[in-house]
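ok so for the tutorial part 2 we go from a plain amino acid sequence to predicted structure tokens. step 1 is just haveing the sequence, like this:
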Amino acid sequence: MSIQSFVSPDLIRQGFSRAMSAMYREEVPLYGALMELVAQTNAQVLRSDHRVAQQLRNTGEIERLDLERHGAIRVGTAGELATISRLFAVMGMQPVGYYDLTPAGVPVHSTAFRAVHEASLQISPFRVFTSLLRLELIENPELREFARSVLARRSIFTPGALALIDKSENQGGLDEQDAEAFVEQALETFRWHHSATVTAKQYRQLSAQHRLVADVVAFKGPHINHLTPRTLDIDKVQAQMPEHGITPKAVIEGPPRRECPILLRQTSFKALEEPIAFIDQAQSCDSHSARFGEIEQRGAALTPAGRTLYDRLLNAARDELKDFPNEKNAQRYNALLQAHFAEFPDSWAGMREQGLAYFRYFVTEQGLAASGALSASETLEGLLSRNYIRFEPLVYEDFLPVSAAGIFQSNLGDDGQNHYAGRSNQQEFEKALGRSTLNELALYAETQRRSILECCAALDLPPLV
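step 2 — the prediction. this is what the tokens look like for a chain of 465 residues:
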């Protein structure tokens, strides 16, 4: 078979993302209402804020805005994690970053599967935050062994999906017919099941350890628990959610509202209470909270210096609050965030000058007109000052570990064990994964460097980096 007959992994990922969104809209009706609200808000922002609209046109993000989704799943074993990595690889998604959520009382560690090159991200910026349950953190030995035995008996992938993963790996890709079949088969791994795989008593024991432990162990597979669209104004969506029959969280996770957004802000409606049936009961007579609707607003990717400053300011605000942000202290927390983050420059130029964020560089028409007469001794700053090149912030494609943990805790309504020793174990996670995770900061730095080299090539200049 010729390699030319293979479907691009980017297009398989795009098709899978659309299929996932359609499935989730059917399973969670409020998700459809949330999507409509986000679409309306984005259209309003693009009409009223010409600066934002132009920035998105300059970077090409405007074309991907309606496609943007991130999902989240939780797997139970090293074998499941390794195979889910192979499944995502068929779609051109690689594990980026390592997230330890135990300091927030969530017994998992995680990575984000996504595309890594800006050209691939433009086609489909679909991401899946994937967590592995840390069975060693279950304190009760008998319960830990029970959970291990239940997970060992299940198979979360269809035979068809496994066969197509093997085929893709062996021949280097999938043709159109196989790609369509792969999307259909892979989707089954993420589907919700109302029937549990344990008894009611066993479910309650797992849930008493942590609601998330029950969510992972007690079901047939790692149902997608949220599918998040990107909004251009998360505060507006948050304020309008009640008008659409959606009850939002009180606090938007991440940095405060800014003229120039940074990293990631996210909010959600609380997890649904869904009826489930246990293996010792014929009828659904209990409920399980797992799935919720989330929205996000993405800003600039921060450099190591920017992340250090961000962490310091966020921690200072939370230290002063002396509590977990919630409905009762939301107003005070927002005020504290605004006060502390006044130290963080709120202009793209200021962030670039202080080395706090990553940027992409583009040649201007003025630069192209002058390209034949430029000196080999040109500098980046000199080219910027004469408007021969311009810059735009590089969008943050990843997740905030503290923010993700906060979303988990506040939505699951956990009242069980939520204090775990913060034992980060990236080596063990990567052993289960079967490969190393990629460093997100290195990816951003490489994208920035590549954009500068492209400008140099277009201007017929020697490399400036």
